[in-house]
Design a protein that fits this description.
The protein is mainly α and 191 residues long. The protein is 74% helix and 0% strand. The chain folds into two domains: 49 residues; 128 residues, Tetracycline Repressor, domain 2 (Orthogonal Bundle).
Amino acid sequence: MHSTASPRAETRQNRGPAAAADNRRALIAAAREVYAEGGLAAPFSAVAKRAGVGQGSLYRHFPDRTALAVAVFEDNVRDLEEYTAAPDRTIQDLLDRVVDQAVVSTAFIQLVTADLTDPRVATLGERFHAVVERLVERDHAAGRIGAHVEIDDVTMATGMLATELARTDAAARPAASVRARRLFQAAFAPR
């Protein structure tokens, strides 16, 4: 009896959980690219296509755009946690990293900030708050910022910076970043 299956299909093996983890990583990377290029207007299906996985895999991992945005920001928050863990990191270092992340995550900023009460988003907010708290305490102790600066001030500043960069034309983002950072530095300086 002759098989109608292609030779490739016959040799294909189910990689199980390893494939699922690889697919998830590929989807997150693809989402960063797709939404950086096309913004929120980009079709959700384009993420699966760019990642080289099926639509079913996309929806199994991320049932909606918010779930995908949360996954992107979870990676961002994990990066901030690791980056700022070094004892010499400052609020200025945090702002540098937020700028780097905001430039490639602009569309996701709109998604994540659309519903801050979503439990998936709230958890990320709590983790980010802990990063900022550690840096504010460190910078207060070192005299790099004034005693008047509170954790919520820095959290607000980073949110303002990320949101402004998301709304700014890509070519103008570096100048907008410098201007905003100058304002924050003046506001946070010891008095």
